[in-house]
Design a protein that fits this description.
By secondary structure, this protein is α+β, with helices and mostly antiparallel strands. The protein is built from 5 helices and 20 strands. It is globular.
Length: 321
Amino acid sequence: MVFTSSNFSGSRILPCFIIATGMSLTSSFAYAASAQLFVPQTPVVTPVPGSIIPTRVQVPNKDYSRRFDENSIGAADPMQVIRWDGVGGAIDSPDFTPLFATAYEIDALANKQDALLDSVIKNTSALLFSVENDGNIYSNSISDVSDVWANPGSINALHPPQDVDGLQVWDNSTNLFSLTGNPTGVAVYDDLGGTIITTSDIAGAIGQPELINSIDLDALMFNENGTGGFTMLFSIAPVAGMFDGGEIWTWDGGINPASFLSQGGHVWDTAHCVMCEFSTIQSENINALEAVSAVPVPAAAWLFGSGLIGLVGAARKKKAV
């Protein structure tokens, strides 16, 4: 094993939205080339495990990628990650193109310290997932209630994704990723291009070492510990006759074999019906994984207060003019 880590449509009514969600007007606005307004959320807060599922607006630092990578204004852009605000605004986030001589496509996204990995494994936080050829992001609660958490218009109003191939939320940045098809034999890279996990590692972890050339790591959550080890949650693309792409494994990095995730009252193995989770899901193949849980009350109150302060300041400026 290698571990060498070095239902919104897009319309925008900003004042009402800011008051309702606590978004801060005092934060600096950033604009994509499309001139579509992107509203960053501050401060970044650590979520609290529990049954509450926050709205997409309450969750900061949301990154996504598409099956065929593009930038925030819809132009083809291999290995480009996009940040979104939950109400249709999007800007370019990390671009991993400089790390490779070949223009590959980004697949899974993660952070080395995914905030809720441990709690989703313990079924104390809701699971987020997307599926192939579907622009929605779905949530599955700890009591097995599934819903659309974000639709394409709320992810990118001007260029709604037809699929969400990678997803990373909460944490400050996307610093782990995989490539579509794992063409180099590496399942997970870090943001410097270093090898974290190989396809051989994944094949061995799921007890199928003969699949080394068939492994395509499709979705990922990750958490490294202070001793050089890690825990991860992952899904792979379908393997004919063996896996349908709806399996989710947990793995502690080699101490024990990978096992299927038990979350929401059932086991996410091959027998589990992903398409049965929600009426609009038309594929068993999971594309992205993440987790959400409650936003701490003091932080939520701070956000609400800062939004009001921003509105007051804007009103005074307008009156002065």
